[in-house]
Task: structure prediction
Amino acid sequence: MKFTPYWLDTAPQGPDRSRTDIGGHVDVAIIGAGLTGLSAALHLARKGANVHVFEKDTVGFGASGRNGGMATTGLSIGLRDAVARYGFDTAKAYLMAYHDAVDTLETLVKEENIDCDFARTGKLNLASKPAHLDGLRKTHEIMSGRLGLETRLIPRSEIHTEIGSDRYHGAMVEARSAGLHVGKFTKGLAEAAAGIGVTIHEKAPVEKIRRLQGTRHELVTARGTVRADQVLVATSGHTGRPFRWQQVRIAPVGSFIIVTEPLGRDLCDMLLPNRRMASSSMNLLNYFRITPDDRLLFGGRARFAMSSQQSDAKSGRILHKAMTEVFPQLTNARVDYCWGGRVDMSMDRMVHAGEQDGLFYSLGYSGHGVQMATHMGKQMAEYMNGTPAANPWRDLPFKRIPGHFGPPWFLPFAGGYYKFKDLMK
Ligand SMILES: Cc1cc2nc3c(=O)[nH]c(=O)nc-3n(C[C@H](O)[C@H](O)[C@H](O)COP(=O)(O)OP(=O)(O)OC[C@H]3O[C@@H](n4cnc5c(N)ncnc54)[C@H](O)[C@@H]3O)c2cc1C
Result:
């Protein structure tokens, strides 16, 4: 079994960018070579800016190369909670931002000709308990009835049209969500950005940052110091000390994934015949899908811990048990990959983007960032060029997480809280 992300292991390797020269003046410096940073770099360079991306590790090392590869259309908090919190019109605007985000991703795939198995196969929300089907029904009524979106309710009696499992009490299908090979997409985005002049510096952690004036900053790395007219912090669950204001507003929560050996088309047709992006309805949910080469990818917040090889292995065992409970057909299937990553949770589980003390940032995707990080890269390019309305999240206050001073000591407590909520749900 490999403890590396399947997506990065099966994507083309880019050139070595770890020996680039760092110094002088740039128009825009971007911290983080994930989907936010690379998409912003591409869109800013298209406008003629001289853009440099600084990455602590390598392209896609963060959540962007480690996720489920699901570009779904839903908010992290769910539509009904969003309506209760923000009112119908605002919740609708936030939801539609996710639809725009999947469109942005699809457009980029086409424009840049990125070979990444993008397909709008749809999303399957599975009811883990009988009462959860009522919740899905209410969501379906709003989405289909009031918003005119393409959703369908699947009763338990018809569940085998969507999934080869008896574990669930019904489901809701949403048609516009997509799946993709996110390793190929992230690497493809890096090549597209580099192709129009973006310089990507790998193994180049930004260690210090000093404000010069307005949005102008000096960035210090071990390979050199650079001055930038604008800086975008695109560091997600890896946001560290140089970006203190952002760091204490983001909880890096571990999420873990296993991928089986290739299962063959026939078995995959039995497990998920329509190749939907599936997730269960618990707070500590599981998400799963078929990969482009017919493996099952199965993920979840198996444990409230940070990713490390030991932690990933423990989480892998928990996920394997959960996977075989859903799909007993896979009891003897070999697990080829197991890895973990950091989800960047904000207090309100909403995206936060804007400018603070002259630093631009886009963070807090809360587990729904494949599409939104890509989209926010594009939107931040507009925002940084003086169009505030380009930022759909501009009115949300970005609250500090109480008691968060750096290391996330509070994760086991948060885990206990969510487990309790699932028991009571
Ligand atoms: C296991 C897992 C499963 C997920 N599944 C899904 C899914 O199926 N669908 C979905 O929509 N979302 C999913 N997500 C969330 C999604 O992957 C992220 O929201 C998204 O990739 C965030 O992209 P990003 O570019 O903002 O951050 P990242 O991809 O995390 O990139 C941030 C980068 O910043 C770099 N960095 C940090 N500090 C510095 C520094 N000081 N100097 C230089 N570089 C620095 C890091 O090394 C990192 O590479 C998942 C996340 C995880 C962890």
Q: What stands out?
A: The chain is about 30% helix and 25% strand. The CA atoms of residues 258 and 320 lie 7 Å apart. Confidence is low (pLDDT under 50) at residues 420-425.
